[in-house]
């Protein structure tokens, strides 16, 4: 065990470096990289590393950063890049392409508000906009989880039953620029967890056209295969967690994490760092005799509906806390997760912390009080919490 | 020049046994791009290649999944990304010690327009990529819209009265990146063309080939006239055939005789130039200006550095 003091940007880059070196006996490691606040420190770290077999390509845009990853991945290399916000929006065409090529690319995204107007602080709208891109999405709560999720993402992405790219998300500044003690494993341990990548559809000398013309019946088959791979993810993810725990001696987060949910009557569902604050509020509510609990959704794609349903089973009141908004609908987590709440439960959506507005315990206490007092669910409540 | 062109194909014993462009492709009759591919096939010989082709006629050429009319592995990339995907393939080949030649094959839309930033950046990084731009001066695959490669006066579906702007000088742009090799090649001059393709394939770093590629569908010309049209474009000086080494050493490969009849015939043979926008005197004057600059920059000496 080696404890280092790292920002989550550096934690992601350190994990990617170890994963990259673990493929030194295979086709090597690389990716295209491009700076954007608040992700830049991640790719800076990567550009300072030495690889026996690795190529970090300093490209001219996010669009090309993903294109380079696509080229290197098709050549059989392990690949990584990182981006955020408008960078992800600009990259989007190739984000979809990477998944449709079925390439096990891992990308770290720092969640940052989309502009204009210009805002560099956290909300989840940038990566949630990519929820239909065919990528696996993991949302992290602390720096250790960012580090572990990047390593785990490679094992998950490269599994023959999956072969899908993984997006590892973390909150801007709250994690990206906050230093925490992080257990950074040594190369030998990472080597044991990450076998050499063998991409079944690696480009060789065989004259195939990858990504050429599909007619409707081929596209139907390709989409079905893609969806089947997505549906295998929960099982493979659980296996990866077990293997991770066996090799590293610590257990990474599951798709859904319940907190004091066994007898909870009222539950708050959140993602990423909001969940840490929610737990504090749950503890305080329990002390006041309220049967409160919370659920954190770590894996957003594939959406863990079964696990969420199980977790929410005892609840009569469920509040979904969204740090995002699908304009004209409401919170994305609420929109996708509400079907997993018990049919008799009152389900209310709270949108808060947009544009990086600090979510404080008092904001969540307000939400909890509102949820308990409600006679019926209403339109999504949009809270302005920034002071 | 000796021009052993047979039915639009270079056919010699040195053709690739497994050609780049195989039967079953979906190109239109008279497509210049088919001829470019056959010349590339000959120039590449038996070398191991991987191709990247963005969204364009060139990827439709491959045909429908799971078949491929290409004789080499191909990545169909997003429209703007060919040079970046190729960078990834080339870096992977490099770090694995493989002598795979990575080839981008893109039209004018994917090069002059939507792919410009990507091409420029790959050139600036001097990626080990051979980039071939087959320029039919139009968005052919979408049915013939203007691009920044469309010449002044040409009618397209988005410039029904004729385009009002001049064509971009792509070779000058690429040469300005001071890449190891940038050249234009002519389908009517296969000896010069195949020689330059061989040179470009053999060199390392970013190499750029520009080829005027007749599109009978978009140009409203006779499919059988393609090579003759290119010959007239070269002969009249409209399409200069030259090469630039490292952005500085210019060499004209085919001297035009500035034949006025060739110029007249080039424009008269294409339906896209019908109308009153074409002023041959003005075009001839512009050609002269262009050539006095080219001749001024011609440093003579077509050295090959023993790369062939």
Question: Could you please describe the fold and organization of this structure?
Answer:
The complex is a heterodimer of chains A (387) and B (308). Chain A has 387 residues and is an alpha/beta fold. In chain A, 39% of the residues lie in helices and 20% in strands. In chain A, the strands form three sheets. Chain A has a seven-stranded mixed β-sheet with strand order 3-2-4-5-7-6-13. In chain A, helix 1 runs parallel beside helix 2 (40-47), helix 3 (62-74) runs parallel beside helix 4 (85-100) and helix 9 packs across helix 12 (361-373). The longest helix of chain A has 33 residues, at 216-248. The radius of gyration of chain A is 21 Å and the shape is globular. An eight-stranded mixed β-sheet of chain B has the order 2-1-3-4-6-5-7-8, sandwiched between helices. Chain B has helices at 32-44, 57-60, 82-95, 108-113, 116-124, 170-175, 190-202, 216-219, 226-235, 260-268, 280-297; strands spanning 49-54, 74-77, 101-107, 129-135, 181-185, 207-212, 241-245, 249-254. Chain B is an alpha/beta fold. The chains are: A alpha/beta (387), B alpha/beta (308). At the A-B interface, strand 3, helix 3, helix 4 and strand 9 of A face strand 2, helix 3 and helix 5 of B. Strand 9 (209-210) of chain A pairs parallel with strand 2 of chain B, so a sheet runs across the interface.
């Amino acid at each position: 065990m080696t404890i280092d003091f790292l920002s989550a940007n550096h934690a992601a880059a350190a994990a990617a470096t170890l994963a990259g070196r673990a493929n030194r006996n295979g086709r090597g490691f690389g990716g295209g990289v491009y700076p954007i606040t608040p992700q830049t420190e991640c790719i800076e770290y990567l550009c300072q590393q030495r690889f026996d077999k690795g190529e970090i390509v300093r490209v001219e845009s996010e669009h090309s950063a993903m294109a380079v990853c696509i080229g290197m991945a098709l050549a059989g290399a392990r690949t990584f890049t990182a981006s955020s916000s408008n960078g992800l929006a600009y990259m989007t065409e190739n984000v979809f392409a990477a998944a449709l090529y079925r390439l096990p690319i891992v990308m770290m995204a720092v969640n940052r508000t989309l502009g204009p107007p210009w805002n560099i602080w956290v909300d989840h709208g940038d990566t949630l906009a990519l929820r239909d891109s065919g990528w696996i999405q993991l949302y992290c709560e602390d720096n250790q989880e960012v580090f572990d999720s990047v390593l785990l993402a490679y094992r998950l992405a490269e599994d023959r039953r999956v072969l899908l790219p993984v997006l590892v998300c973390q909150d801007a500044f709250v994690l990206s620029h906050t230093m925490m003690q992080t257990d950074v494993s040594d190369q030998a341990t990472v080597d044991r967890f990450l076998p050499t990548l063998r991409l079944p559809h690696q480009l060789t000398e065989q004259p195939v056209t990858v990504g050429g013309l599909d007619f409707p019946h081929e596209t139907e088959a390709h989409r079905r295969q893609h969806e089947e791979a997505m549906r295998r993810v929960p099982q493979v993810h659980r296996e990866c967690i077990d293997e991770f725990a066996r090799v590293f001696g610590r257990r990474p987060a599951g798709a859904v994490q319940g907190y004091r949910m066994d007898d909870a009557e009222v539950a708050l569902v959140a993602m990423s760092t909001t969940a840490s604050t929610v737990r504090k509020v749950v503890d305080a509510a329990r002390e006041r005799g309220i049967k409160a609990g919370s659920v954190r959704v770590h894996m957003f794609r594939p959406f863990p509906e079964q696990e969420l349903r199980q977790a929410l089973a005892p609840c009569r009141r469920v509040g979904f806390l969204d740090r995002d908004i699908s304009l004209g609908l409401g919170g994305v987590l609420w929109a996708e997760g509400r079907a997993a709440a018990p049919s008799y439960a009152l389900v209310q959506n709270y949108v808060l912390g947009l544009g990086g507005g600090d979510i404080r315990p008092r904001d969540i206490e307000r939400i909890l009080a509102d949820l308990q007092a409600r006679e019926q669910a209403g339109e999504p409540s949009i809270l302005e919490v920034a002071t | 020049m000796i021009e052993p062109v047979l039915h639009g194909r270079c056919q010699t014993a040195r053709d690739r046994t497994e050609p780049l462009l195989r039967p079953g492709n979906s190109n239109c009759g008279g497509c210049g791009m088919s001829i470019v591919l056959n010349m590339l096939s000959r120039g590449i010989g038996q070398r191991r290649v991987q191709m990247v082709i963005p969204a364009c006629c060139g990827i439709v050429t491959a045909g429908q999944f799971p078949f491929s009319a290409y004789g080499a592995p191909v990545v169909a990339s997003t429209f703007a990304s060919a040079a970046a995907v190729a960078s990834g393939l080339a870096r992977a080949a490099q770090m694995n010690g493989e002598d795979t030649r990575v080839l981008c094959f893109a039209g004018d839309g994917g090069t002059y327009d939507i792919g410009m930033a990507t091409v420029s950046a790959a050139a600036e990084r001097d990626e080990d990529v051979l980039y071939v731009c087959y320029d039919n001066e139009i968005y052919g695959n979408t049915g013939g819209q203007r691009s920044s490669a469309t010449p002044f006066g040409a009618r397209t579906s988005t410039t029904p009265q004729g385009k009002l702007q001049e064509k971009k000088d792509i070779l000058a742009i690429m040469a300005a990146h001071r890449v190891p090799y940038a050249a234009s090649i002519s389908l009517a001059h296969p000896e010069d063309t195949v020689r330059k393709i061989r040179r470009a394939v053999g060199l390392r770093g970013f190499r750029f080939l520009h080829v005027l590629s007749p599109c009978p569908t978009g140009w409203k010309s006779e499919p059988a006239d393609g090579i003759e049209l290119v010959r007239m474009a070269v002969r009249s000086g409209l399409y200069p055939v030259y090469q630039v080494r490292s952005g500085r050493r210019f060499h004209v490969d085919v001297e035009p005789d500035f034949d006025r009849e060739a110029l007249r015939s080039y424009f008269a043979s294409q339906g896209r130039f019908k109308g009153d926008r074409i002023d041959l005197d003005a075009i001839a004057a512009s050609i002269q200006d262009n050539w006095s600059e080219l001749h001024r920059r011609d440093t003579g000496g077509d050295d090959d550095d023993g790369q062939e």
